[in-house]
Write a structure and sequence with these properties.
about 280 residues, alpha/beta, Rossmann fold, seven-stranded mixed sheet, about 15% strand, globular, binds S-adenosylmethionine
C-alpha cells in the first residue's frame, strides 16, 4: 500500500466516517462501555453549572450532547468526521432537540468560536488521543481554554496507555502483530502509520492514537492553566473484561459498577483504565 493510502486509512476523520453508526452504538454496546458513560455523566452531574452553553468537542454522533440537551443545556457539538456530524444531526432531530443543539464539522486544534463563549466544555472518549503530535495536543488544550468562561469546568477523557499494553498482551494469540510492535510502541505510547506499516502489513488495526498515563493528562491540563480537580478511571479494574462481564447477571454487574465507582479516583486505578477522565477548571 502507498504511504498516502495507509495514512488515509489510519486518519481519524476517515476512520470515524467509516465507523458510522458504530460510534453511536459504542457507549451502549456492552456493560463495560456503559461504565464509561455512567461514570462520565456522574461527574458531569457533579461539576456542570446548573445551566448554560456547553461545547461538546469531538462529540461524534451526539450521545453526550443529547444527554445535556435533555437536561436543559444549550449545546454546540463539533466533530472532525462529516459522517458523525450527519448522524448527530439526525439523532438530535429525531428527539426534537434542534433548538438546543447546534452541530458543525470542525477541529479542536482550531476552534471556530470566540473567546469565553462556553460555560463548560467536554472533550470525551478520546478526541485528544487522536492527535498524535505533542504540540498539536497542546494547541487543542489551549483552544479549549480560550473558548471557556473563567472558572468554567472542562471534562477531558483519553485512552489509557497501561490498559492498551495489557490488551495487546491479552490478545497475543490472535493478534501477534500487537505484541511484536509492543517494544517500539511503548517508547512513544503512540500508534501511528509507521508502526502499522512496519508490523501490520499495511493493514492498520486501529486509528492513529496517543495513549495517556494519568499523570500526563493532569500535567497537560495544568500546563495550560486549568486547575485539575479530579483524575479518574472510567472502567477501572473492569477494563479489558468485555466478554466475562456480559456473562454475569444484573446483581453481579451492579457490584462491579459499585466497585469501579468506589475505586475510580485511586491513582493506580485511574492509570490502568481504558479511559482516563480529568475534570479541570479554567483558572
Ligand atoms: C471515540 S470518539 C468519542 C466520541 C464522544 N465524545 C464519546 O465520548 O463517545 C472520538 C471522536 O473524536 C473525533 N475527533 C478526532 N480528532 C478530532 C479533532 N482533531 N477535532 C475534532 N474531533 C476529533 C472523531 O471524529 C470521533 O468522532
Amino acid at each position: 500500500m502507498a504511504d498516502d493510502d495507509l495514512q488515509a486509512k489510519i486518519d481519524p476523520a476517515n476512520y470515524y466516517d467509516d465507523l458510522g453508526e458504530g460510534e453511536w452504538e459504542r457507549l451502549q454496546e456492552s456493560f463495560k462501555n456503559s461504565l464509561e458513560f455512567e461514570n462520565t455523566t456522574d461527574y458531569l452531574s457533579q461539576y456542570l453549572p446548573e445551566s448554560g452553553h456547553v461545547l461538546d468537542a469531538g462529540g461524534a454522533a451526539g450521545r453526550y450532547s443529547i444527554w445535556l440537551a435533555e437536561r436543559g443545556y444549550d449545546v454546540t457539538l463539533l466533530d472532525l468526521s462529516a459522517e458523525q456530524v450527519a448522524i448527530a444531526k439526525s439523532r438530535v432531530a429525531e428527539r426534537d432537540l434542534e433548538s438546543q443543539v447546534t452541530i458543525q464539522q470542525g477541529d479542536i486544534r482550531d476552534l471556530p468560536f470566540s473567546e469565553t463563549r462556553f460555560d463548560a466544555t467536554l472533550c470525551l472518549g478520546g478526541p485528544l488521543s487522536h492527535i498524535i503530535s505533542d504540540d498539536e495536543r497542546s494547541e487543542a488544550i489551549r483552544e479549549l481554554n480560550r473558548v471557556m468562561q473563567s472558572s468554567a469546568p472542562v471534562f477531558v477523557s483519553v485512552m489509557g496507555f497501561v490498559s492498551v499494553v495489557q490488551n495487546l498482551i491479552k490478545s497475543a494469540a490472535h493478534f501477534e502483530a500487537g505484541v511484536r510492535q509492543l517494544p517500539e510502541f511503548i517508547e512513544t505510547a503512540t500508534y501511528s502509520a509507521e508502526l502499522a506499516k512496519k508490523y501490520e502489513d499495511d493493514d492498520p488495526a486501529f486509528v492513529e492514537c496517543h495513549f495517556f498515563r494519568a499523570a500526563e493528562l493532569r500535567n497537560l491540563l495544568e500546563k495550560h492553566e486549568f486547575a485539575v480537580e479530579v483524575v479518574a478511571g472510567l472502567e477501572g479494574p473492569a477494563s479489558n473484561f468485555e466478554a466475562p462481564l456480559e456473562e454475569i447477571d444484573a446483581d453481579a454487574q451492579k457490584n462491579v459498577t459499585e466497585v469501579v465507582r468506589k475505586l475510580r479516583e485511586d491513582p493506580t486505578v485511574a492509570d490502568l483504565s481504558n479511559h482516563i477522565l480529568a475534570v479541570g477548571r479554567v483558572g
